[in-house]
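writing this on my phone so excuse typos. first protein, seq and then structure
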Amino acid sequence: MSEARDRGVVLIGVGQLRNNRERVPEEALEPLDLIERAAGGAAADAGLDRAALAALDAVGVVQIVSWTYEDPAAAVASRIGAGDVRGTVSGAGGHQPVAVLAELAAAIAAGESELALLCGGEAQSSVELLGAVKDPDAAAGWSHEPGGVGKFSRAVGGTERMWDLGLVGPIRVYPLFENRLRADLGQSFAESQDWSARMYARFSEIAAGNEAAWNQEPVSAAEVATIDARNRMICWPYPLRMNAYNRVDQAGAVLLASVAAADRLGVPAERRVHLHATAVAADSEDVLEREGYGRSPGLEATLDAALAGAGTTAGDLDLVDLYSCFPIVPKLGAIHLGRRDDLELSATGGLTSFGGAHNDYSMHALVAAVRGIRAGAERGLVYANGEYLTRHAAAVLGREAGDGPLASANVDGGETAPRLDDELLGEVEVETFTVEFDREARPARGYVIVRGPDGARSGVRVSKSDAATLAALVSETDEPIGRTGRVVREGDRRLFTFGAA
């Protein structure tokens, strides 16, 4: 038996669950409880007794947002009976399940680990149900060391430039990319929305067959696209059913091992899914410094590196799960993979229908990929995205072992940032934009990225009182991108307008 074969990395067991979908206070469980159950499920899925988890030498926990623990990795290890383990806890970002998988797998491939658990879970729905957002003590019986909901640093929201502009939060940033892609592709508003709606309707069908999905009722493309009281516009062009849904109680776990360890544990060959390659990359933290908004160099570089590391091509993939917090992400991934006309872009069900358990959605994508490969797929890819199309991670998995050792890549997206001018005034061209709506379905505020005559970029807001400009930006018939407007100064504010000078 060769050393190279022994150091191959296999995913041997997966577990996932949803809890308390009925929102009954007595059924509310904290994230640690949910993770413990998912870990036990992963062991059983591998054909092992739960006691086998005592042999773990590494535990990687995706950052838990809905409840806080002093040391989540140590808490998980204690719950499952693991002793002396190397524990890691990720930072923020939806890319983290695949990024942590890459770290754990690299340690196994290097001979530094034999058996590792990747896990994560959230109980956001129950936290809100119990009133524990404002009063942590309302979650009686939960861990209170320290307890309470997680807090993010200001830097997680964005750079100071982004904060000054108010361009922070996923609902405001992702539409910048969606609107620009529509213009770059020469699509009408209706064509672009139809693509998003058909994609998300298909995701809802997939979620309907997933036992851990939060929403298991399929919705039609018309229901996804139609704006009404149940599907109000959030930030143009995304109504509610095109936004991730994070008020869920879900957990997932993946058990991974060296081939040698899987042999010792007696894991049958048909339960093993081979990890061929991983790749991670990042784009600029400042959204204003992105090369453009119709593509993501980091996403593209990550997909390319993962496929190259696995010695395969996009055409060889028969299972794909692309992160789907908003339609723009799977659209960009599909375009780069040559799957623009393919709606089979999720094995899980998407972050709207399946549910977006804060940072942990792609844990469930890994579960779905393992199951899909066991069921007959030969090769699959999971792509995860974090922050604002900022951080990227991908993994290629297969039914059979790869031709060589695990390939792990940390790649540079190669972005070229434009020159920024935070004091730009006068005539400008709209590069991209979004408009946020209030709960009465009225345009409330606008965010516009503009270019000056010399090509310098600037971010500017639109006044709520400038109804004409807001209406022009949300026109379904006249594309505002590429139009000329003006940046004017009102007191200490710079504002964008289509109005006269």
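second protein below, same order as before
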Amino acid sequence: MIIATTQNAGEGRSFGGSADIAFKPFPDDTLHFGVEYLNTKYTDFVFQSPIAGGLRFISPVGTGCVLTENSAATTQTVNCSGKPFTRSPKWFGVASYVHSFELANGAKIDAKGDMSFQSSRWLGTEYLVNAAPYALFNASLTYRSASDALTVSAFIRNIADKAVFTASKNSSFVPDFETVTISPPRTFGMRVSYKY
């Protein structure tokens, strides 16, 4: 029988900083830039993994952490101390540009383009999947009536149809089998809202 358990890491530390700026170079234009830096490390991340009938739930190919088999050969110590926090890129940033078109009837159309980026990051506590850096680009066109009662917006996300992996996990039932999740591919659509 295989029993799945959830444990917290012992201790960790993190520090970082961020900068954010928004300005209007012209009355109808808005620019925004933001960047964050994050430095993380588990200072104490040690747990026990069972060995049953010679079967190791976590084997050397099933983790990037240090494994030490205990003398009784019934458990092994998994030491991930010194590893960075999972899903915690060192660098993250955003940038956007919005131009507003004023129509003769008082309505407005906003054209927006934006991008976000992340540096590489570990996706799971097995430390097997290190996701590559990526940048995502989006765009939207929004119409607002003069009374601001009606809003119609068309958008497209992940314009380049980039494959972005967001998390990974070792299977609870199949040793050394890693699963990953992925963010949505290119998507587009419309939204309509009305205030009354």
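The chain has a mean pLDDT of 91. thats all i got for now
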